[in-house]
Amino acid sequence: MVTADSPLALFKALADDTRLQLMLLIMAEQEMCVCEMTHALNQSQPKISRHLALLRQHELLTDRREGQWVHYRLAPGLNTGALALLEQTFSHYQHYIEPARARLAKMGNRPERQQLCC
Fold first, then answer.
1. In Å, what is the CA distance from 66 to each residue of 19, 31, 79?
2. CA–CA separation, 36 vs 32, rounded Å?
3. What CATH number is given for 7-116 in this structure?
4. Strand, helix or coil at 14?
5. Strand, coil or helix: what is 1?
6. What is the mean pLDDT of residues 37-61?
7. Where in the chain are the domains?
8. Sign of the torsion formed by the C-alpha atoms of 18, 42, 56 and 88
9. Are 68 and 114 in contact (CB under 8 A)?
10. E strand or H helix that includes residue 63
């Protein structure tokens, strides 16, 4: 399995616009369901799911199921180097995900978002 322990694998995983935005959004929100991500990034569920699968394969994210919803968060075992890189990117480039966060905010509070999800 290719993991984020390899700097090359880490940078390749984050080198895609959608994957980088997903990682930063999840950092900002702590946890997100797929429907929130599709709404925030205005992209299809299959496209988001493909990117999430790659991020999971690289052990950057973990998921949990709750009924029909799948929620993602940063992997608890994420190495300190990868976590530091993501934290620095998040702190210096929040403007990068502001449009997505604004779309997400228009979904309303979490219980309402769950009703709209999936």
1. 23, 12, 27
2. 6
3. 1.10.10.10
4. helix
5. coil
6. 95
7. 7-116
8. positive
9. no
10. strand 61-66
Helical spans, DSSP H, in the chain: 7-14, 17-29, 34-41, 45-57, 80-92, 98-105, 110-116
- Non-local (6+) Cβ contacts of 79 within 8 A are 4, 5
Tokens 């299809």 sit at which residue?
A: 44
Which residue carries 């994957």 as its tokens?
Answer: 19
R_g of the chain, CA atoms, integer Å: 14
- Nearest CA-CA partner of 101 in 39, 34, 17, 30: 39
Q: What is the pLDDT of residue 107?
A: 82
Average pLDDT of the chain is: 88
pTM across the whole model: 0.88
* CA–CA distance, 84 with 40 (Å, rounded to integer): 24
Two structure tokens written together for 64: 């949990």
Residue type, 110: R
- Residue 83's pLDDT band, with cuts at 50, 70 and 90, is very high
The neighbouring-strand residues paired with 33 are: 71
Structure tokens at 5: 């322990």
